[in-house]
Design a protein that fits this description.
alpha/beta, six-stranded mixed sheet, 27 helices, 34 strands
Length: 857
Amino acid sequence: MDEFLQDFLVECFESLSAIDQGLVALERKPDDVEVLNNIFRAVHTVKGTCGMFGFQRLERIAHVTEDVLGKMREGKLEATPAVIGPILASIDIIRSIVEGIEAKKAEPEGDDSAAIEKLKSLLNGNEIKAPEVIHKIVTHDEETAAVVHESKSKLSVTEQTLRVNIDVLDGLMNFVGELVLTRNQLVQLVRGDDESKYQGPIQLLNRVTSGLQEAVMKTRMQPIGNAWGKLPRIVRDLSQSTGKEIELIMNGQETEIDRQILQAIQDPLIHCVRNSADHGIELPEIRKQKGKPSVGTITLNAFHEGGHIVIEIKDNGAGINFQAVCEKAIERDLVKREVASQLSNAQIARFIFEPGFSTAKQITEVSGRGVGMDVVRSNVEKIGGSIDLPCEEGAVGTTIRIKIPLTLAIVSALIVKAGGTTGDVFAIPQVGVLELVRISESNQHLIEDIHGSKVLRLRDKLLPLINMAKILGMENSNIQSESSAIANMGEIAIIIAQVGDTEFGFWVDEIFDTQEIVVKPVGRLLRDIKMFAGSTILGDGRVVLILDTGRIAAKALLKTTFEAATHQEIETESTEGENTTVLVFKGNDHAPLAVPLALVSRLEEFSPGKIEKVDNRYVVQYRGALLPLIPCQASVTLDPKSEQNISAIIFSDGRRSMGLVVSQIVDIVEEVLSIDSTGKKSGVLGAAIVAGYATEIIDTYYFLQTAYPDWFVGKKTMSGSVSPKILLVDDSHFFRDLLRPILESKGYVVTLAFDGSQALHMLEKSAPFDLILSDIEMPVMNGLVLAAKVKEHPVWKNTPILALTSLASPPDKQRGLDAGFLDYLTKFDQDAVLLAIHSAISKNKKEYEAGTQLNER
């Protein structure tokens, strides 16, 4: 039976029973106004509801009955037995019709004209002198009567339905939660002990608890259509006030969801629909000009997807005005104009969720108040959901996609540990968890440092990496790097999660297992700490806190959703005219020296007593290995007997490290570096003005090769010239930052890309490059594929491309040449590389000029 029809029948039978009792009571006490009002409201409800289903016979008899009761309320008709009799007769007819509807799911036929005429004569003031003898009026045909006789032999719809106060259900849910906790504790006790005599009973308890949990959850579930009840009226009113023609289409109303979430999602849905009506759907005349139907549509879809409910609000309107959104973001200083020009539509769309963001030109009842999609996002994320704006190419209109959990009472969660060996255990809801990644010594290069923030390179993405222990302020978390954590524990675990359309990684020390946990509120002392979504009790009896991943991500990143998702774009910007952060230090001659901060791994101080001499070089035991110490100047001496600690700048590429010994760390400064390399001095690239002083920029390569002569054997390299543009493609962040100053010191303008696909993107959006320097082995798209695509392209095919690789065997080199590489550079040699780049650019320039002259002729 249709669910709405069943609800109607239950309500009708309950109302009819109350009407019967009320009429009898009213007959005994005609002056009881409250009883009369209750009877009137019940009949009015039956009449109003039956009209929605098209039950015309039922509506006619109910309507005239309501009129008689209305005249009694006005005091124009007394509640005498002569009046009550015809009303009771009409109620019997109504009951028989409702029984027929229950039996056949359709209104039975019948002639009620005699009963209706008696009621109308009461309305006309005709007095009925003798009281009517009430008999049950049977109006069913034989088929209906037989079916009705069979509904009576079984439980009726009223007997099958029980109305329960919601407080009772909530209390029952709490008891089931306690039972789930107890079940988890008992399962924990016998885990691994197959011979335990309690194994069988606990398994039975587990099955019964799971069944009871599922059954109780069903009592809390309601169709999501209950949250859509106000939307048709809202769309109708907006259509009238805006002069637009709008049709609302709703699919999946029967999709069930927890009552608690249903209540939380109502306001966000209303706001999204209002947005579609106001911002999306165009006026009829504008739609006709675009070749669209004059009537715009807003479609709501609800469906299950992987243990969640997905709600989509789609309109076939004008879509998002990305230019207007971008301009408003620039105006509000959410992004710089030069960066905004490089953003994709998906990245621009994220600004819509910023607090107070609105592109409306004037304030109306619907728009322009600055209270909008940020509130929607906040409300959705409070219940563990996510919201995003898919930006598909060629899509018409706008789609808002909301993903929410089925329930909040009992959820599946990961049990994790953060804070090292002395850390604490937490629960992370699996809602929004995409995958788990293990980082060990063999793949720790996947963790990189970009603009001072840790990121994880996962396939073709750079994901912000959040140290869970550090963000929670746990003891000793600040001194724990990923390298030391791996050294101590063998590996670290990273949870890849998603909030909205932003992905990020949570770094934890250990992941134990998954459990179904009962969500309980946090204690009074922790209530104001927004990083905790609740608490729970594990199977071993421990009380742990449930982490709110959305709020933790927001606090840890300290950026807008746009900034958190666009590390990749920022990293690939050209360095021309931009600030470079440098570490300023001094040697013994007190002249300032500097090195790009991006190359610096750490700053350390060592006790002179720990310095040792091995093979005529100074070393110190550092993190389980020997760290070579190289003076930054010849005048800087290493004396193991000195009383002062030794300061060192640590450089590391994840495989090996070295320490540059200095006399003093001065400052960290941002400066637009213009390096003058006129003079030639070992260990120095050239001089630049830093913080108002002439400062020598050290040649990091020189010192690294001094520490390890084979540091760059099998590594990659590059160079520069007088102002040509070079595209540097290398998946190693360390080597990109190491090589860039060399190129810039020779006057080149350098643009960075971390793989072949990113390089193609930069080629498409930038002015032509004079040279491409590319690694071979890279994720997503390697150098061979990149070279082939460059040579196939009509615009880029003449751009020289040089390989930077350790794959130097004849077959490797031949494959590179076949793909389109001009030459292979297999070992760092500044003079040779600079010569190769200069030669390639000069040759290409001469060929271009010769071709131009030929064309002019």
